[in-house]
Design a protein that fits this description.
- The chain is α/β, with parallel strands linked by helices and 417 residues long.
- It has helices at residues 10-18, 49-64, 69-72, 78-89, 103-117, 132-144, 159-162, 185-194, 244-247, 286-299, 304-325, 353-362, 386-402, 408-411; strands at residues 29-30, 36-37, 46-47, 97-99, 123-126, 150-153, 167-173, 198-202, 221-224, 239-242, 332-333, 345-349, 365-366, 368-370, 374-378.
- The strands form four sheets. A seven-stranded mixed beta sheet has the order 4-10-9-8-7-5-6, with helices on both faces.
- Helix 6 (132-144) links the parallel strand 5 (123-126) and strand 6 (150-153).
- It binds pyridoxal-5'-phosphate.
- Pyridoxal-5'-phosphate is lined by residues 102-104, 131, 133-134, 173, 177, 202, 204-205, 225, 238.
- Residues 102-104, 131, 133-134, 173, 177, 202, 204-205, 225, 238 line the site of pyridoxal-5'-phosphate.
Length: 417
């Protein structure tokens, strides 16, 4: 859909909400009064079902049934069961995804696997502006392996040429956390495979934000985050995907007992589980997994194609309103305009980005800031409305026109930005 009513009115925007098939989902989330939440890409909102589900788990499963709940409440099977549910959101097959640990830790496991499955090749290709933890984990692994590998960082434009017969693995975030740029997963994976390299996709800004089809892309490995678009809550466990064809070829080095073939035989010798379970390490955070499952169950009732359409439409509307109403204030659009080249966020560059974002947050418009100069706004179609775009830009325009951001309090950097 193109929005070409000029100039836009709030009534026109409200009519988009009235026709929105996803509108009823908003009522399934706790959205605080007076807040326009444009940061679901960093910490997803709380589904209304989650507190009761957690309270029930705490009182009954933990409080009353105690250790029996590993069997009776299905705690033991949860990483695999929830993995199979997330698989449906990312185009994976049952038995290819398991929920465990954090995204950083899971990257370590699959990068170790990719290097082991591609012996004789020493280069890991990634981007300088990939999310830092991915690059840090790669550096740690390279060091552990005796510094025989090299992390080669190339810009997106130069990626294709950089992949050659020395490349063991390519490690990319599907949607860039800072700019919102989206890679062509199918093309890059095919190109890498043609040159004998394996690909690791970080889906932190894709899972739950848009349809992803790992099977169609013939993906090798993927990891992703539970607390962003999947709404699993702060520090929710992450997930890891390993294509069926690679599962038996390697057992990852964090060889904890939950990844053992028979943990309750208590044998001294490590023997990896068949299938994806070997990507588990130790005991998983059950309560956090229950919160994540409650959110994933809700997301599975939504249509990801509709989510993607609404997210693109909201972003278009937001950009158009910013261009109409905030012109002359030096904001620069960083996110690509082409729908296939962007994720579910809009990033604007401004030299005073930090205090502008603090001023927005003080007025209830919550986005975030990514150094050095990026204002980041995430669009989560299940709990945002089109009028939120209108109202957010209204406040942004006011803050810019009145220079409300130009106060010492807004320039004080917090620990988390
Ligand atoms: C958010 C994010 C992570 C987070 O990793 P944690 O281990 O959960 O802290 C990793 N990679 C990318 C690309 C992210 O956006």
């Amino acid at each position: 859909m193109t929005i070409n009513v000029s100039p836009l009115t709030r009534e026109f925007v409200a009519a988009l909400d009235a026709a929105d098939p996803l509108a009823p989902f908003r009522d399934q989330f706790h959205v605080p009064e007076g807040v326009i939440y444009l940061d679901g890409n960093s910490l997803g909102a709380l589904p209304k079902a989650t507190p009761d589900r957690l309270a029930q788990a705490i009182r009954h499963e933990w409080g009353s049934a105690l250790v029996r709940s590993w069997n009776t409440a299905g705690w033991y099977d949860m990483p695999r069961r929830l993995g199979d549910k997330i698989a449906r959101l990312i185009g994976a097959q049952p038995g290819e995804v398991v929920v465990a640990d954090s995204t950083s830790v899971n990257l370590f496991k699959v990068l170790a696997a990719a290097l082991k499955l591609n012996p004789g090749r020493r280069v890991i290709v990634s981007e300088p502006d990939n999310f830092p933890t991915d690059l840090y984990m790669a550096q740690g692994l390279i060091d552990l392996l005796g510094n025989q590998h090299e992390l080669k960082l190339v810009r997106a434009e130069a990626l294709v040429e950089a992949i050659n017969d020395e490349t063991a693995a390519i490690m990319l975030t599907h949607v860039n956390y800072r700019t919102g740029y989206r890679h062509d997963m199918v093309a890059i994976t095919a190109h890498a495979h043609a040159r004998g390299a394996l690909v690791i996709w970080d889906l932190a800004h894709s899972a739950g934000a848009m349809p992803v089809d790992l099977s169609a892309a013939n993906a090798d490995f993927a990891i992703g985050c539970g607390y962003k678009y999947l709404n699993g809550g702060p520090g929710a466990p992450a997930f890891v995907y390993v294509a069926q064809r690679h599962q038996a070829g390697f057992s990852q080095p964090l060889s904890g007992w939950m990844g053992h073939a028979q943990p309750f035989e208590f044998d001294w010798k490590y023997r990896p589980a068949e299938g994806i379970a070997r990507y588990l390490c130790g005991t998983q955070p059950v309560l956090s997994m229950i919160a994540l499952e409650s959110a994933v169950d809700l997301m599975l009732t939504a249509n990801l194609v509709e989510i993607r359409e609404k997210s693109l439409r909201m972003a278009d509307l937001f950009v158009r309103l910013v261009e109409q109403r905030c012109a002359g204030h030096g904001l620069e659009l960083v996110t690509p305009r082409e729908p296939e080249k962007r994720g579910s966020q809009v990033c604007l560059r401004h030299p005073e980005g930090y205090p502008i974002m603090q001023a927005l947050i003080a007025r209830g418009v919550i986005g975030d800031f990514r150094a050095p100069d990026i204002l980041r706004f995430g669009f989560t179609p299940l709990y945002l409305r089109y009028v939120d775009m209108w109202d957010a830009v209204d406040i942004l325009a006011d803050i810019l026109n009145t220079r409300a951001w130009d106060q010492p309090a807004f320039k004080q950097r917090a620990k988390v930005t």
